[in-house]
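During the second half of the funding period, the structural biology subgroup turned its attention to how the target accommodates small molecules. The most pressing case was copper (II) ion, which had performed well in the primary screen but for which no bound structure existed. We therefore specified the complex as follows and requested a full 3D prediction, including the ligand pose.
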Amino acid sequence: MASLTLYPDDERLAGGERAAFNLYLISALALFVLMMLVGLTMRMAQAKWLSVPPNLFYELLSMHGAGMVGTMALATTAVMWFFLRKYVRLHLWAFVANYVLFMLGAVCIILSIFVGGYGALWTFLYPLPVRGMGLWTSDTAALFMLGYLLIGVGSLLFYLDGAAGIIKVHGNLGRALGLPWLFGGKIDPAHPKAVVAGTMVIIANSLGILAGAVVLVMSLINIFYPTVLLNALVAKNLIYWFGHMYINATIYMGVIAVYELLPRYSGKPYPVSRPFLWSWAVSTLFVIIVFPHHLLMDFAQPRWLAIIGQVVSWGAGFPVFVVTAYGALSNINRSGMRWTMPSRLMVLSVFGWAAGIVPAIMDGTIRINLVMHNTQWVPGHFHFYLLLGVLAMVLALMFHEIGSRAHAPPNSGADKLGFPIYLVGGLIFVFAFLDAGHLSVPRRMAEHLDAWTPTDRLGSIGAILVVLAMLYFAVRITVGLLRAPRLGASGVRAQDAAG
Amino acid sequence: MIFQNVVWTLVLVGMGLVAVGFIYVVAQAGKPADEVATRKSTHTAHVLQAWLFAVLLVGFVAGSWATLHRFPIPPQHAELGAPQVVEVVGRQWSWQITPDTVQAGSTVEFRVTSADVNHGFAIYAPDGRIVAQTQAMPGFTNKLLYAFRQPGTYTVQCLEYCGLAHAPMRTTIQVVAPGGK
Ligand code: HEM
Ligand SMILES: [Cu+2]
């Protein structure tokens, strides 16, 4: 059962690959910590424990939104690359080019926010970027958008390289997704889940990025030729098409770590199955067409789009509950798994994803959206599956990798303390947001009414715990990554880890 | 009964069920099963998975029907014929609402638009809960129907980020008893 080797040889990182991978992970960790501190600052400002002037608050909110989404994309791209490269040929230059373009884009974004005063948030909703009312100029907004374009080009390069590699091995993207096996035929049990998930991300997110590029270019034209006006509803559709896909792609890239690693820690095989292929086929479609749930309160939108938004949001629950969460749980059930950092984080991540989409699905219901839209219910549900879901997936791979360099899964006393702090802090933090949404507290507000501060304060306390745990994880992983790479044959097998 | 409390309860139950599933399995994960038990539990797992799918499917169909068969958003291109009409314009950073006094007990049609960027027109009841909302968008007029049940002072709060003074972009609507002025 070669696939159950904990640290297989074909995953070992050589010279340049190791440097690039370390660069991705260490940059992502540093950015996560910084962006969390930005988030904590905002939460404590809402709690009235800190005084932050509104212009700075919205700069911080723009930074946190763009920064967190971007960093999550950066980190999960590293996850996808780490596993996909075992099955198809990926070029290191594409992986590195994505990093370089990301960092160039990040510089544009940071300059536009903290030098130019940009405060139109990560969603750059037209026409706000060109109506800063004296706080920022149109040129500043253009710089922010240029940053996005650079990051988007980097992602596209990486996806194109991935698509070329996948097509060379599997013939076409449909075969890579396993579409020919949906209705019958003998499924190749060795067909890699990383290829299925990677293909889905390449298809969906390339479309999303193209939609983003279209609306970015339209917005730039409007900035430089202000007489060319855009249709605000069309712009909004394109922005949310892009935004939804881009952030959701991080889940689908991150979950590759769970598919690949979970069976090694549980000691039970976790092969592809027909339900699995179905779930990825429908998820590919769903993630592309679900974005109208962001526009349910735009009554001018054609009715059928709103219906798609609701029905597809609900439908998107099936793959997650019935296949991914259920599959992960049956994989570990009575497996004799021993709890170490990677296994803990993986189980947490699937829980975070599955539990977090419950309030998300609720909010995708038109009737409910009428009272929950743009309340803190929204940061409540997306922080749930991003913080407790996707970030936990990323951390699981990071801990796994430092384990591979130390020849044993990490499980120190400090780890055992850090994990529950992250978990409990995270739960307090997200439930404070959800409760605030239940109490009609609006999202994205610099100044909160006194009646709203109890949930703000509770949320701040949870956030402090998360930041502390994350700070520890970041240092621990960085030190682990910088250690000498492991030598020789892979000694540790699943059985040793599973005990 | 406050609608938000119903939603909150549903969500807590849903998340609780997910949590119970995870806690159950996590508690079992450390106890390895022998070969026979593994084969048996694999079979049980498949049966349970089919049941989970079936239950969710029923919920999906019933829930979609229940929430959509009477479409919650009024038709935007038809005459709505509501007894009261209120024109709403949002701009950075104020609301213009005419008239700003309406009567409880009969439907009000809000015609909501924006003079500049996107805003969110949300009505808060005196108890601080949102009762209805729609977007205020430049170039479009969104029609929202709402019948106030209780007289009182309702707050209109901007609910779509629109720049520096987005948070304080609020005003009030007076709702008076039927027939009153
Ligand atoms: C300690 C951890 C974190 C804290 C304290 C934090 C705090 C916050 C706060 C206070 C907001 C604004 C809420 C509001 O609208 O009123 C926010 C928004 C947001 N956060 Fe976080 N956050 C954290 C982690 C994350 C993570 C891990 C991600 C994921 C990738 C993330 C992504 C976002 C996004 C996308 C927004 C929306 C920005 C917008 O509304 O434009 N956050 N966060
Ligand atoms: Cu506003």
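Two results from this model are relevant to the next phase. Chain B has two domains: 3-68, 84-176. Residues A 36, 39-40, 42-43, 61, 64-65, 68-69, 72, 121-123, 376, 379, 383, 386-387, 391, 443-445, 463, 466-467 surround protoporphyrin IX containing FE (ligand 1) (CB under 6 Å).
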